[in-house]
Specification:
By secondary structure, the protein is of the alpha+beta class. 24% of the residues lie in helices and 20% in strands. The relative contact order is 0.20.
Length: 558
Amino acid sequence: MPDEETLEEGVLNPVKPEIQDPLLQSLLADTPAAETPIVPQPAPLEIPVPAETVDCIVIGTGAGGAPLLARLAMAGLKVVALEAGPWHDPKKDFATDEKAQEFLFWNDERLSAGQDPVAFGKNNSGTGVGGSTLHYTAYTPRPRPADLHLHRDFGVGVDWPFGYEELEPYFEELEQFLGISGPTPYPWGPSRRKGYPLAPLPLNGAAQLMQRGCEKLGIQTSPAANAALSGRYYQEGIGWREACTNRGFCQAGCSTGAKASMDVTFLPLAAAHGADTRPGCYVTEIERDDTGKITGVIYQRNGQEQRLRCRHLFLCAGAIETPRLLLLNELALSSGHVGRNFMSHTAIQVFGTFEEAVRPYKGIPGALISEETHRPTDADFAGGYLLQSIGIMPVTFAGQVARGRKLWGESLRRYMQQYNHVAGINILGDCLPHADNFLELAEEKDARGLAKPRIHFTNHDNEIRMTNHAEKLMRRIWEAAGATDIWAFPRSAHIIGTARMGLSGDDAVVDANGKAFDVPNLYICDNSVFPSALGVNPALTIMALALRTADKFLENQR
């Protein structure tokens, strides 16, 4: 997801915030009473208790919540999804314009700390029915079996509580349902019973140049797997979706429905089986009875607080909002690992300038892949990474040039004049959990009066060595391809691991099936439960986990 993952800070919600400055607070507190007459305030209205109780509430409608919602609805359960963002009409709302589409990102401010603070906004989460899949760039490689066993193979990190074989049937199901475009056979990993249902999408300019450089160095490449249709495709339970037009602005939302975002795939399927998706519903409280069992949630909608009762709760809000909601409600905290083990893929980009026109805004952004670096023989680090070509939009690229090369004003304008001749390569590398990489609640409040999340992140030795290895290789690829003025932009991508799954509640928040160890009817299903970061983009694995979690839950209910 190269274009999706560029670094950009979020912005404050425009609602008037609470006063934060201690000096100003003290001055206001000392104001004479005569100057600030007390106006009697009406008693707050009690939130009504709904007459019905639904079987399941799903919080979040992204890659974790939407597949799970559809599966539960297809089993005949009464399910409601609560989404903080609004419904979008792709044909009317998704423009080919970077700045106009910033409403797709989760723009509430998140506080960053550590030596390598992670920027948020469009970097790694979204708002709206469909979540971050509205603006992801549809890069959907499978993880390799070894990705789930870092500790077994290297003695660092932790292993997943199950093996690749548990997820493999779900990968196949997703690829066929979503209509993933990719090569058959796929060059790396275990052999597959079924190939991709559609041929690969065309290689864009950067992909063709990367392919040329890799061929000269003897590095195998392949067209990448993308959840965007290379041909018209019939999706069971939904109907026909049209082929990708290769306009390249996947981060701005797909206006044709060719990209397999949740709003055109699993959410219509869920609705067809009776699921109720409610947009604009921001959950603030999770209610419990005297035994600790969850009884419902309170959420804000159109300025009003509402209550919804349930028998089971599925938290699928992502690796920031999920642990934040748990911490705010003091829920599932017995392991001490809520908010801990935060990981972010190392994702350095290397750019070069070419004589031929590249036009990096055209075509699917991540068109070419190489997994030859999954476990490099000359590695001085644990884990591995993949290589991918990247397409990048002009405003995003200008921001990276300003930060990465310290160019501004006339010098930035001169450099940007060669934008159409620039190509990039990106890595997506594993990241180990560290004790000093974590999420906590800050004293500072957001516009709703809730504590903001503060995320600490520092790249450690393993991530630094992996990044150095990758940068040297990518520079060699661009040199072989004929690039000049080669430079690197260090960055991190994705947010992972803040409520991880495991075999024991001593060091994990949920079990192998996503069920909380210390709350009988709470399940978590998103990228927060990943025990390790994996050396691939997370979207496909999040969806596979969602289907598996739903199936395990339904088996238990039966």
